[in-house]
Each structure stands twice: as structure tokens, then as C-alpha cells.
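User: Predict the structure for this protein chain, please.
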Amino acid sequence: MPSTLPAVGLYAEQKRLSQATLARWRSWPTTDQQALLTVAQELRLGENHLRDFLDWLEEIVLRDGGSIAAVLQQPAVRRALKLGRSRNDKLKAVKDALRRLRYPEIARLEHELQTCVKALALGPQVRVAFPPAFEGDEVTLEVRVKSAKDLDAVVSRIRQRLTDGTFQRLFELLDEA
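Assistant: Here is the predicted structure, written as C-alpha cells:
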């Protein structure tokens, strides 16, 4: 059984973490416990966020090998931790970096879909949304206009993108998911 860091217990007590979460954290090697403690203290992680970190970090190490400490030293995570923003912005950036490491195929798909949406160039009046976790094959287009003339311009752009095949790539990407 790995040794436990007293500071992990103290942090858990301060944050009122459940015994299950604490036991899980303490089951890690000491270097991994310390690495997460440093991040947890910086981001002031509570129970729910900490469990997300435990889940994703364990899954990444299970899939890729290595250590939790090494994952937390990944450049994407380090960059997110160095952001000079609010705690919430930094937390969001770190969770996004970990999510991308945990789900690289979803991260790749998100990037390609964002590139595809930019290529559509539908303008600020049109928002393109995808199904949550890309489960499903429907795309939602939200159109906001103030006049019939604006609507006609938006519909013309959409029609043009359908004709030139730009929309087709978007649906092909969703089919790959």
C-alpha cells in the first residue's frame, strides 16, 4: 500500500471530501498524490471536480501508462495552470486540457468540426450546434435576424454552402463519430 501524505488528509478535511474519494486518492503513489495535491490546492478543487480529476487521470494512465504526476506535467496542463485568469477560468482550462488528453478522438473531432464551421462562413447570425458528446447525427442551426432581408441573406449563404458541398464535410465528420 502506498504511503499517504498528511497534507492530502488535511486538504480532504478542509474540503470535506468523502472517505471514498480520499481513499482513492491515497491509493496512488506518493508522487502522484503530491502532484494532484498541488493542482487541487491551486484550483481549490471540491469533491465533484476532484472526482473528475481522479477519473480522468486514472483513465489516462490506464490507457497510456506512465504516472499521474507525468500527466499533470503535460504541456497542455501546465499552460492551463499558468493562465493569469480567474480560478474558474483556470479550472475550466485545466479540465479541458485533461478532457482532451482523456478523449483525444473527441478532441480531434471537435477541432475538425470547428474548422468546418469556420469554413462555412455563415456569419454571426447563425450558430451551429452539435449533439452532446456527438451522440446522434443531427446538426442544429440557430438563426437570429432582425428583418426579412437579413433572413434572405442568411438563407442564401446556407443554400450556397449546401450547393458547394461545404456542409457535406460537416456531416461526414459526424458520421465518423
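The mean pLDDT is 91.
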